[in-house]
Design brief:
The structure holds two protein chains of two kinds. Chain A is an alpha/beta fold. In chain A, about 30% of the residues lie in helices and about 20% in strands. Chain A has four domains: about 110-170 and about 365-445 and about 455-505, Rossmann fold, CATH 3.40.50; about 180-360, Dimethylsulfoxide Reductase, domain 2 (3-Layer(aba) Sandwich); about 545-660, Barwin-like endoglucanases (Beta Barrel); about 705-920, 2-Layer Sandwich (Alpha-Beta Plaits), CATH 3.30.70.20. Classes of the chains: A alpha/beta, B mainly alpha.
Chain lengths: ~950, ~425
Amino acid sequence: MDRRTFLHMLGLVTGTAALSACSSEKEQNRLISYLVPPEEGVIPGEALWHPGTCTECPAGCGMQVRLRDRWPVKAEGVPDHPVSAGGLCVRGQASLWRLYHPQRLKGPLLREGGEFRAISWDEAYARILAALDEARGTGRRSIYLAGRTTGSLAALLGESCAALELERLPEFELFCHAALRQANALLFGQGEVPHYRTDQADALFTLGADLLETFVTPVDFARQFANRAGRPGRRWWHAEPHFSLTGANADLRLPLRPGSEPHLLAWLLRRLADGGRRSLPAATVAALPDVTLSAAASATGLSPGELEELAAGLSRAQEPLVLTGGGATGGEGGLAAAMLAGLLQWTLGATGKSVDFTRTENYAGVGSLLDLERLAGQLERGEAGVLFVARANPVFHAPVAWNFAGRLRGATLRVGLGDFFDETLREMDLVLPLSHSLESWGDVEPRRGVRGLIRPAVLPLHDTRSEGDILLELRRRSGAAVPGNYQEHLFGEWRRRYDTHTLRSFVDRGFVEEPVTAPPVVLNARGATAFLRGLRLSPPSEPPMLVVAPSIRRFDGRSRPLQLLEDIPDPLTTVSYGAWVSISATDAALLRLAESDELRLSIGHWSAVLPVKVQPGLPAGVCVVQRDLLEANPGGADPRTGEALCHLDGLRLEKTGKRVDLPVLAGSSSQHGRGIIPDPAHRKEEYKRASLYPEHTHPEHRWAMAIDLALCIGCGACAAACYVENNVPVTGAKDHLRGREMSWLRIEPFYDVPGGVEFIPMLCQHCHYAPCEPVCPVYAAYHNPEGLNVQVYNRCIGTRYCSHNCPYKVRRFNWWSHRWEKPLDRMRNPDLSTRTRGMMEKCTFCIQRIRAAKDKAKDHGRPVRDGEVVTACAQSCPTGAIIFGDLNDSSSRVARLVRSERAYQVFAQLGTEPSVWYLMKKVRGEG
Amino acid sequence: MRGEEQNITTATGRVEKDVLAALGRPGLRYLAGVGLCALLALMLFILWGGLALRGLGLSGKNHPVGWAMLITNFVFWVGIAHSGTLISAVLYLFRARFRTSFNRSAEAMTVFALLVASLFPLIHLGRVWVFYYLLPYPSERLIWPNFRSPLVWDVFAVTTYLIVSLVFFYVGMIPDLAIARRRLPGLRGRTYGLLSLGWQGTVLQWRHYGRLYLFLAAFATPLVASVHSIVSWDFAVSIVPGWHTTIFAPYFVAGAIFSGTAMVITLTIPMRRWLRLEPYITVDHFEAIAKILLFTSLIITYTYLVEHGLSLYGNSPFERDQYLYRALGDYRVLFAIMIVCNSLLPLTMFVRRLRRNLAWLFILGILVNIGMWLERFVIIVASLSHDYDPYAWGTYNFSLVEFGITVGSFGLFFLFFLLFVRLLPVLSMTEIKEHQ
């Protein structure tokens, strides 16, 4: 071999070796395209939408899930759903976490000597049936306690309980609205929670009902809020002892002393009874407690002027509505408040119109804490055999004094059905894991005549069953002839109810509306008079007192396992992780407490130690703690209605002297006059800029967003949607304490209006002259031809200069490579990458959705239509406050809004020219 | 060779002997010092590895404070690097004789401080493994660095300065290396011989040398102004309140000379003592350099007044709040220490007795450097903590990793310096001879 040949050979060998090294077999998967695409199934890269119903709370909003490569990756509202009309709340957005949660129960468990051991379903069924037989033999009654159950499952549960000789207890919900139902039964013979149409009322007075957080159907109320907003002459008063998100969004928040609600309503009723639409019988009016204006004022703590204004506003209005519920009916005077409010609704003409008894909220099967107390008695007396607890957490909600967990031991076998270990399941002998509503068939009837579909979108991830299947299987094994499984049972039911066309539409759209006949609503004046005669108004609570409030993030505590909801801060306090107690600035000064100082709260034998968060606008002497943050229910139950007491007297406060790290995400509760939410009285200034560089051109599109602050209620649904859509990592308490949250979109509350708060969603403003772009040394931040400020992750070297130069501070640096614990990694959206450590990320205006819409338009050979691109935040917003579109299209909705008189840009004086326009609540000069 | 030997008088011989005595066999204490510094430097690299492998979450940074101790260290070390050039180049041009006593160690300090400083922009990168995106290399994707970004200017400014300082340092040392070649036996002599590039000390060589040295001095002098101006533009070009001011360039240059001078004092006083160089570095020399310290301190104080005065006088709520926050907010203690160290204590230099008191000068040098480190920290961290959007305000707490890296950078710097003291002539023998 001569030298040249050797070199040839060497070159050949090196070249082939290098070429073969270019591919890695390990990382490769073959993608074979379908010859004939399947009608329904997995098409790689194509998204499928499955309509269904959200089961995170009892409201029953329409929820569709987006399937990518057969895995659900995103939940969204169903646009024309009768309950939610397209929106989805923060809990609904987070509900996918429940499906994929690493700590979900993965198979049946049996307690043996204090430890749980995995068993088979066969063994579980066998043990239950044996225990049922034994109980029957010893004369003990077996009991079934479930959370709120509606639709076909309620019927099946009834049948099954009869067949298996189980006593079916009224369903358990903490927010059971028992006082409302009792009052409506007494007044109108309708023991129901009516469907309130607050958007029909021009003068709305809500007392205690937290419409925008947890009250019956919060997404619906948010939508109604949006319908009300912007209409002239509408006024909303909200009275409550503490400071809730609902109160924050009312036109006027009246802080009143808890327990004084009946005083206020009695005075209002006396004041308005004469001029009402429907007159009350003289005997009823005469039986009303004699509350004068000054008595009402001194009881409530409100000024006579405020009360008179409220009464005048209600009497002037065309369609006044007084609505009570929530905390106002969850107390000693709860029933009285509900009764008086019912009478007010009647006399003001709201009953039958904005208080709708036709499509009532379906709480027919729900009991109250009184039923739980009865159960506790049965258990104590040793009358109970097998106890089933399904989808409910009575141990957590029963008052501490009852020692419910201890009394549970009175049952011979305790069977828990649920998806996570909670306080109740931990006390069970046998734990049966339930399938998620995205893994099973079912239906719900949250409102009379509205049936929502539950339809599997994915095969069960674990060895779980649906409750219907468990019941059918138990019956089958006990010897009954049961045809098929729960799915077949359901389809049988549906076929009986609906014709083929309706059934088809039910399965395709995810809901069906059935015709409902309006029941007669007649006032039972005699009953009302009798009640009023027996009514003795008790004096209101004396400060200091504890208000146990529901939580927008965790409802009554059932959404606690979803960590995403902890990453999104509480809207009012901006506390993300951990428990806290809100106190007023006055009390903090009195007790010499700084934020994060620990405070011991005690009432009787109950006590809790919580760090303090000072809540602006909270009345002195009121401490607020969210129900889900307490380890146990400190109060008792109202003996008449069975509602849990929401405000507790006799509170003792004691400073422990310790400090706890509390992640408060807001750096300041005030905007320090910086005009982020400008004072409408200010003159709008025009800013001119000079630049040496050529102007950006946007030949095709210029994407922009408008956010209507008059509609933003601060609920945080947009933030949750953004997390799920964009694979934003959930970082955990430790990083939050260090100020390293990763949210691309946040809601900033600013307490600059006296006694109130204003919210502003803050996200990347996609500035026309973005300060982040010139400072990036490697062009990772650049301006694309469609007006988007784009971050090229692979190019980013992580100098973080862009973040510093961003006046809106919306850029997020990946301090770690964030991990998605299996199987949570299934939830990641494959349309965009997950970011690794050391790179900057931020809002992209959902560029993947823009792409998808553009591709679709291109396939059809037409331009992208206005409204075709909907960002995740805009889609989820229950009030429709976020509008996205193309500014180049001057007829687009966003272009019209940008030209509105209310439009402004944050920090316009910096010359950044953001692509996000905010719409002020009020136009200059007005109010 | 022979001609040169004939020129040696007893006096110059003593200079050579005294200066080269340092190159002798090292003592135990010296070795222990080198070992300690090497360990600290090793710690720096280990901690850096941790940051790169685990993520910058190991540092105490957050949103909004994304630059903190590491960038403070960068500015601090670049600042230290400044007086080297000032003393050797600017004072050379001004024919300030006392520079002879300091110039070699000041130049060495420049080079070492720059080496240490240039680590920090790399350490603080989120993805250091792609740092080369910062360089204008021919890329198949046709992407260049963004020349509008001050961080790219930084890359050029610092590398230019490093190269020029290194050349200047080396060129100035060539005649001395030749002396070492002649004086030291064996391998060491031959090594110095190699480094002296065949220096013979002929008249022609001296003439070329003089020209080159003058040229380099003239070339390096504007760099004193440009490098730290550009470093200051890392901040001033941004729109962050507290950073976005036109005074930053002269302010930073003065600050750099101030801290560099203090560092020269801090290093030379013990060096002079341990290497017994009292005859060559006299108290008069220290007095002269103390005057520079005083002068730059007054400039710094003036800029503080201008900065704060204008922010209060101006109509920007962002600026005003920022400067109030800096003085009265979360970092107020650091701010107070900074004022005491940088503005108040150097006023003692008006007193002649204190100017000539080496113990006080040594302490003052250290305090000034603490003050200047804090100045950079306060500028960087306080401005970021409190910028436009009050919701996004946040404070920074350093982590042990950053603290370790900071300590390690001092270890690395002193390691370089200790090695320099034993390996290279610490005083310019030829210049001393010239002045004698």
